[in-house]
Amino acid sequence: MTVTLNIGDRVIGGGCAPYVIAEACINHEGDIAIAREMVHVARAAKCDAIKFQFHVLDDEMLRQAPQSANFEEPLYDTLNRTNLTVAEHKELKALCRNIGIDYLCTPFSRKSADILYDEIGVDVFKVGSGELTNIPLQRHIASKGKPMIVSTGMTELGEVEETVAALRETGVAFALTHCVSAYPCPYDRVNLGVIPKYRELFGVPVGLSDHSIGIYTSLGAVAFGACIIEKHFTLDRTAPGPDHQSSIEPFELGELVKGCRAVFEACGDKREIFPEEKEIVAWARESVVSTADITAGTVITADMVSVKRPGPGHGAIAAKHLDDVIGMSAKANISADRQVLWSEVK
User: Fold this and answer.
1) How are beta strands 5-7 and 10-12 bridged, if at all?
2) For residue 134, how many C-alpha atoms fall within 13 Å in the half-sphere facing its CB?
3) What spatial distance separates the first Cα and last Cα of the chain, rounded to whole Å?
4) Is 31 helix (H, G, I), strand (E, B) or coil?
């Protein structure tokens, strides 16, 4: 049985609609005005949350850390240039609260986690894929007692199992997001089947942190049972920076939210005739009809009857009983080209 996760009064998992996180990452380029606008855009798109990052760089990394191809300057310099201040994060959190969207933020070290907890007052920790195997940091964050959403990109299953075991020991409530940390991620690397696998193995809410182009795989993830969808977004995909090109723009963000909720609603497993279908049944199904005049007492042969619309009703014979009618006798005269009634055959 999969447990649920609570963020404020929002329940994640347990048959609830997907929790959609607009990942602002560093697409604000360190400009608080852009960050504020991104909050408003995410709220207008009806996202559940917007997520930022907070770095204490000298506690997090060495200056000579390597960089991936999506960075045009040293990683340290990029993060230093785009890092928002504590005061700015407090402002963004207050803005989120005032307009009705959850504020999430990712720490990358013990000090950043401490500041997010002690000074900014986060309600949940979103932990990035790079920190999945940093079990000391995972335990430190868990010690705060706040729910955690933990991404699992760049890992093998055994590493995920190790981190899950460590988190279970702490007693903290947590969810996992399946992730492939490629920017952008090719569709044939997404592997949405990991979502139900995680749910079966770990019994926790499972989502997708999606780095593929567009919104397609996010919508597919909901069909696979993802209860969290995290997606990078930007105000302008042509802006300079490492993540803009693999992010979606405001209109797509709105479509993502609508699409995720539509797919969620479509994921039931009932097989029945629904009320909306019943008036269609009357004309869309077929019944047994006469193709010639049939006099009373005649044994009905295959060339005397066929099946046509409309469907059976008021004693008419359903199409599935055509073979049963052949060989019966007519109890009354049956004129050509009309429905045959059960009361007319024996």
Assistant:
1) antiparallel
2) 18
3) 55
4) coil
Tell me which residue of 338, 261, 298 sits closest to 47, measured CA to CA.
261
pTM reported for the whole predicted model: 0.90
- Whether residue 183 contacts residue 155, with contact meaning beta carbons closer than 8 Å, is answered with no
Residue 27 burial class via C-beta count within 10 angstroms: exposed 0-12, middle 13-18, buried 19 and up: buried
CA 208 to chain centroid, in Å, comes to 7
Residue 2: HSE in the Cβ half-sphere, 13 Å Cα cutoff = 25
- For Cα atoms 230, 236, 239, give the angle at the middle one, nearest 5 degrees: 110
Domains and CATH numbers, the chain: 5-265 (3.20.20.70), 275-344 (3.90.1210.10)
pLDDT in tens, 205-257: 999 999 999 999 999 999 999 999 999 999 999 888 777 888 999 999 999 99
Tell me the pairing of strands 10-12 and 19-25. Answer: unpaired
- Copy the structure tokens of residue 326: 């052949």
pLDDT tens for 69-121 read 666 778 899 999 999 999 999 999 999 999 999 999 999 999 999 999 999 99
Q: Which residues contact 304 (CB under 8 A, 6 or more apart)?
A: 290, 291, 292, 294, 298
Residue 96 CB contacts under 8 Å (≥ 6 apart), including other chains: 39, 43, 50, 102, 103
